[in-house]
Write a structure and sequence with these properties.
CATH architecture of the largest domain: 3-Layer(aba) Sandwich
Number of strands: 20
CATH class of the largest domain: Alpha Beta
Length: about 425
């Protein structure tokens, strides 16, 4: 499908780089970004005869000679290049859609999406598959572009993918065999323009499904159930029905799997993630012994309510991955100790009032980044002491003075990191270094 084409790749990062690498030997590739890649990436592009242009005005390079535009998932849908491509009738897809066409015919694709819990659910499933010695390949939004793993996938292998709404929105032919929708709540509305458009993108995880395909849904998430109402897939449900919580234990098909007290990870949201993973384990006949071994040793995902350290009786948790208020609300519900909460980051008009029902244990709010003034007003409204500074480093100096034994310091910003960092992982790493 992608041979002898002239291809315009918009945005480098890992996905643009890996896609160029996949396509370079049989196509003419033009790649553009507002900044340079690493030294190694730039040398590789030259070696593969990929033409690269660093520019803030990428639209000037697009003309009718191009056959397709491949966009980085983070590129806004109203980017001038994409608008021009649509006007010119040039198809716009993304890296995962392209890589899909390079997979062997006989394989099983499992796709996990949702507003929250994607990474944890994907990681749990991957660990269970590995422990059960199943032929699984991990990729997608979890940090490994599909383009980087397609050549290692063999017939009858399992491809396990975390898929974001930013990726789903540009799917055309891509199809999973098993789709998991963890939950849906308002987020990334600046990218999609409306909540309806966001939900429509999530629904694409079920595109091209037949009654032979599976959909695993959160029985207690109304938006997920509505979104999947008319799909053709066979439906099974976690957080109720097949996998559920009863008497502080997690059950699968009426068999007790594990007590919550045995888990190392905190919060009801993690129980939901575990329940979703159990449905997949059941689908592949993974034994209870393997499941329990994985769950007993699972310490959670880095940057998602990650225990960092205890210093002088003060515990520190890194939840940098919480880039929207719903994720932060989930984190706050995991604690019953006094919480010193670090909020703020990129201004996306997120509504911090969504946190109001979760503030019971918050004794002080520390505001950073572009949203700090709005957070200050929000804290005043709920009569919670608030300190504002521009950077995380400055805020940590204040926390060092304020925190006392028994407190929990929680970085859960309810905001994207792009006002000061290239990614949420960088923000989380700095937080841990400062501790």
């Amino acid at each position: 499908m992608y041979e002898q084409k002239k291809i315009f790749i918009l945005g480098m990062a890992r996905s643009g780089y890996e896609c160029a690498k996949l396509l370079a030997d049989k196509n003419e590739i033009f790649l553009t970004d507002s900044k340079l890649g690493t030294k190694e990436q730039m040398e590789d592009l030259k070696k593969w005869n990929v033409h690269f242009e660093q520019s803030e005005n990428q639209v000037e390079f697009l003309d009718s000679s191009f056959d397709v535009v491949i966009k980085n998932p983070g590129v806004p849908l109203n980017h001038p290049v994409l608008l021009k491509a649509n006007d010119m009738g040039i198809p716009v897809v993304n890296e995962m859609e392209v890589a899909y066409h390079y997979l062997p015919k006989k394989k099983t694709i499992i796709g996990i999406t949702g507003s929250n819990g994607k990474t944890t659910t994907t990681t749990l499933i991957y660990e269970m598959f590995k422990k059960a010695n199943l032929p699984v390949h991990l990729g997608g939004n979890i940090g490994f572009p599909l383009s980087s793993i397609v050549k290692s996938v063999k017939e009858n292998d399992i491809v396990l993918l975390e898929i974001s709404d930013h990726q789903l929105v540009n799917f055309k032919d891509f199809k999973t065999d098993i789709s998991i929708l963890t939950n849906i709540s308002p987020t990334h509305l600046d990218f999609h323009g409306s909540y309806e458009a966001y939900k429509k993108s999530k629904a694409k995880i079920f595109d091209h499904h037949t009654p032979n395909d599976c959909a695993f849904l959160n029985a207690k998430d109304e938006e997920s159930l509505k979104t999947a109402e008319k799909i053709k897939s066979r439906k099974e449900y976690f957080n109720g029905f097949q996998a559920y919580l009863k008497n502080n234990s997690i059950y699968l098909m009426d068999e007790k799997i594990i007590d919550i007290s045995e888990l190392k990870v905190k919060g009801i949201h993690n129980c939901e993630n575990i329940m979703a993973s159990l449905l997949v384990a059941k689908e592949f006949s993974i034994s209870k012994e393997v499941i329990r071994d994985v769950l007993l040793n699972f310490k959670g995902v880095e940057h998602r309510i990650e225990f960092v350290k205890e210093v002088n009786g003060i515990t520190y948790y890194n939840d940098s991955k919480s880039t929207n208020p719903v994720a932060t609300m989930t984190a706050l519900k995991s604690f019953n100790t006094p919480v010193l909460l670090i909020l703020g980051g990129l201004e996306r008009n997120q509504d911090f009032h969504d946190l109001k029902e979760s503030l019971e244990h918050v004794t002080h709010i520390y505001a950073i980044g572009q949203t700090k003034e709005r957070i200050m007003e929000f804290a005043k409204e709920y009569q919670i002491p608030c300190t504002k500074k521009e950077t995380l480093k400055e805020i940590m100096e204040e926390i060092k003075k304020d925190a006392k034994e028994g407190d929990t310091v929680l970085l859960s910003p309810a905001s994207a990191s792009w006002d000061q960092y290239d990614k949420f992982e960088s923000r989380g790493e700095e937080f841990k270094q400062l501790i």
